[in-house]
Design the sequence.
C-alpha cells in the first residue's frame, strides 16, 4: 500500500467532497439554491512551477474533480473545463470565471505530485454574468 | 505665483475641469478637500499645484487653512463648484481677495427652502409647503414632490401620489438624513430645462439652455441632456424675463448659477436653482456646443475679469446617460472602443469600477456612464449618442 503526504490530503478532500454532497440532501423546509458535490483543485508536480495540465477541447485545463481514489493512491480525475465570463474556454488563470464538469477522465499517481490547490466550490457551474446595456 | 483656492471638488466633471482652466489662466490651483480619493488619484491632476486634505471642512477650519496658505501664496480668488461650499467660498473670497460676490444670494440658492421663501411671491414659484418634524399632513394636492432642502443629484427627491407614499418617504428620509423640515412642492408637468446663467453687474446672461430627458418612477433621473439651439422667440423672451426677475429678487448681482425650470401650461416654473454650474458633463457640453468653457469664464468672473461669453460655434450636442435594470457585481465592461467609433462621438465616460455593486437608479449617482455626440441636426446628435451608448456592455454577476 503506497502512501505520501499529498495522498493523505487527497483522502481528506475526498471525505469533505462526500460530506458536501450529503449536506445538500434531504431538506424539506430549507431551500438550497444549488447542489454542490465538487471541490475543484489544481495539482502541482514536483519539478515545475506550472500546474499539471491536461488537454481538453482544443485547449488545456489545470482544474480537476476527484472521482475515485484507491488504496495505492491512484486517482481517477474528471477534467473540469475552465470558462471565462463570456462562456469561452479560459486561457489564463486570470480569465477563469467558472468551471464546468466534462465526461473526460484521466488516471494519475497522486504521489507523483507535490502540492494540491483547492479552489472555491462556487466556481462549479457558476452562472454567467447578465449582459446589460442601455435599452 | 498667483493662486486660486478651490474648496471641494469631484474627481471628474465640471468642478474637476476648473483646475485645468485655472492653469490655462496662469494661476496655481490649490484644492482643499475632505475626499481621500484625491490623494489616491493625485497623478491624474497634474494641474493642481497643491492638494490639502482636511478632516473637517467647516468654515473655521477652512478659514484657518486659507490663512496659512495666504502666507506663501498670492491668493486671487476662492471658489467652489460643489455643494455646499459655494457661498462659503464666495464669503471667504470677499474677505481675503476683496471680491464683490453676492454671498447672501449664493447662500439662499444653496438652500431650497430659503430659495422658495425668497421667491414666495414670484410668478415662477409653484405651490409649496413646509413639512416640519411634527409630521403635519400636507395640504397640497397629490401628486406632489417631496424633497430635502439640501438635496442634490435627485437624492431625497420623491414623487408622492398618496398619503401612504408620503409616510414611507418621510420615514426613509428621516432615517437617512434627519432634517428639521422638508419641502412639498406642486408637481409641474412640462418639458424640463437647465439654464446656465452668468450674472455680470446685475445683468443675467443665458449661456446655455439644455433640455433634460427625465424618467419618473419613485424618484427622478435625468437620462439625457440636449443643448437647445433654437427656441420660439416668445417663449425665450418669457424665459429671459422670468430669469431676470428671479435673479433680481434673489439679489444675485455678480456670480454664476443654473436654474432648472419647466415650461408648463401656466408658463415658466422654477423647479430649483443652484449657485454654480451643473456638475458632470455640463461644462464639456457647453464647450462643445458653443466654444464657451463656462467653468473658465466663471473663474474669470470671480477674479474680477470680464468673462467672454460670446458663442464661437453652434453645434448640436446630445449626452445619453446609461442606467441599468439589474443588481449585481460588475464583472467587466466591454464595447467602449466600439462605442467611440460611432461618428460624432466626442466623449464617453464609464464610472463604476470592476467588482463594485451596480443597481437600477434611485438617484443620479446610479447613472453609470454617458456618451456625448455632436451632429448636424438635433436628431443626428441624439441618434449617435444613443446608438453609441447601446454598444457598451456591462457584465453583472447577480447578487
Sequence:
Amino acid at each position: 500500500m503506497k502512501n505520501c503526504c499529498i495522498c493523505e490530503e487527497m483522502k481528506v478532500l475526498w471525505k469533505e467532497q462526500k460530506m458536501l454532497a450529503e449536506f445538500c440532501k434531504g431538506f424539506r423546509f430549507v431551500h438550497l439554491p444549488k447542489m454542490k458535490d465538487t471541490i475543484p483543485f489544481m495539482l502541482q508536480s514536483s519539478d515545475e512551477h506550472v500546474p499539471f495540465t491536461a488537454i481538453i477541447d482544443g485547449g488545456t485545463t489545470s482544474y480537476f474533480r476527484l472521482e475515485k481514489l484507491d488504496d495505492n493512491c491512484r486517482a481517477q480525475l474528471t477534467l473540469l473545463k475552465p470558462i471565462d465570463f463570456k462562456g469561452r474556454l479560459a486561457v489564463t488563470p486570470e480569465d477563469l470565471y467558472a468551471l464546468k464538469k466534462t465526461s473526460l477522465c484521466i488516471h494519475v499517481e497522486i504521489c507523483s505530485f507535490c502540492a494540491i490547490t483547492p479552489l472555491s466550490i462556487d466556481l462549479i457551474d457558476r452562472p454567467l454574468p447578465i449582459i446589460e446595456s442601455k435599452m | 505665483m498667483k493662486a486660486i483656492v478651490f474648496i471641494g471638488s469631484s474627481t471628474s466633471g465640471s468642478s474637476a475641469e476648473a483646475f485645468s482652466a485655472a492653469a490655462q489662466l496662469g494661476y496655481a490651483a490649490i484644492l482643499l478637500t475632505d475626499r481621500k480619493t484625491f490623494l489616491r488619484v493625485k497623478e491624474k491632476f497634474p494641474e493642481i499645484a497643491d492638494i490639502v486634505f482636511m478632516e473637517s471642512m467647516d468654515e473655521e477650519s477652512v478659514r484657518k487653512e486659507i490663512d496659512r496658505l495666504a502666507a506663501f501664496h498670492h491668493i486671487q480668488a476662492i471658489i467652489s463648484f460643489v455643494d455646499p461650499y459655494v457661498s462659503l467660498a464666495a464669503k471667504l473670497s470677499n474677505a481675503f481677495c476683496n471680491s464683490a460676490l453676492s454671498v447672501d444670494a449664493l447662500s439662499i440658492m444653496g438652500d431650497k427652502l430659503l430659495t422658495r421663501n425668497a421667491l414666495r411671491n414670484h410668478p415662477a414659484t409653484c405651490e409649496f409647503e413646509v413639512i416640519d418634524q411634527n409630521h403635519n399632513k400636507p395640504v397640497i394636492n397629490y401628486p406632489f414632490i417631496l424633497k430635502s432642502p439640501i438635496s442634490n443629484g435627485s437624492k431625497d427627491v420623491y414623487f408622492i401620489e398618496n398619503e401612504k407614499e408620503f409616510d414611507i418617504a418621510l420615514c426613509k428620509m428621516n432615517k437617512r438624513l434627519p432634517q428639521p423640515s422638508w419641502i412639498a412642492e406642486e408637481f409641474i408637468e412640462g418639458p424640463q430645462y437647465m439654464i446656465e446663467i452668468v450674472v455680470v453687474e446685475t445683468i443675467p446672461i443665458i449661456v446655455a439652455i439644455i433640455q433634460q430627458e427625465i424618467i419618473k418612477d419613485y424618484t427622478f433621473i435625468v437620462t439625457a441632456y440636449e443643448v437647445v439651439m433654437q427656441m420660439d422667440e416668445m417663449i425665450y423672451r418669457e424665459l429671459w424675463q422670468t430669469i431676470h426677475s428671479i435673479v433680481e429678487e434673489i439679489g444675485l448681482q455678480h456670480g454664476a448659477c443654473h436654474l432648472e425650470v419647466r415650461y408648463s401650461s401656466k408658463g415658466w416654473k422654477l423647479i430649483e436653482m443652484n449657485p454654480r454650474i451643473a456638475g458632470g458633463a455640463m461644462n464639456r457640453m457647453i464647450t462643445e456646443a458653443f466654444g464657451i468653457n463656462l467653468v473658465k469664464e466663471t473663474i474669470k468672473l470671480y477674479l474680477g475679469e470680464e468673462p467672454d461669453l460670446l458663442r464661437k460655434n453652434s453645434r448640436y450636442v446630445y449626452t445619453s446617460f446609461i442606467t441599468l435594470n439589474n443588481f449585481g457585481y460588475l464583472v467587466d465592461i466591454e464595447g467602449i472602443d466600439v462605442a467611440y467609433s460611432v461618428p460624432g462621438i466626442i466623449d464617453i465616460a464609464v464610472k463604476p469600477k470592476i467588482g463594485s455593486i451596480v443597481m437600477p437608479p434611485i438617484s443620479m449617482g446610479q447613472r453609470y456612464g454617458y456618451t456625448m455626440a455632436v451632429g448636424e441636426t438635433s436628431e443626428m446628435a441624439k441618434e449617435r449618442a444613443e446608438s453609441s451608448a447601446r454598444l457598451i456592455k456591462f457584465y453583472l454577476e447577480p447578487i
Observations:
- The mean pLDDT of chain B is 92.
- Chain B touches chain A at residues 320, 322-326, 328, 331-332, 335, 386, 389-398 (CB under 8 Å).
- The longest strand of chain B covers residues 203-216.
- The CA atoms of residues 13 and 160 of chain B lie 31 Å apart.
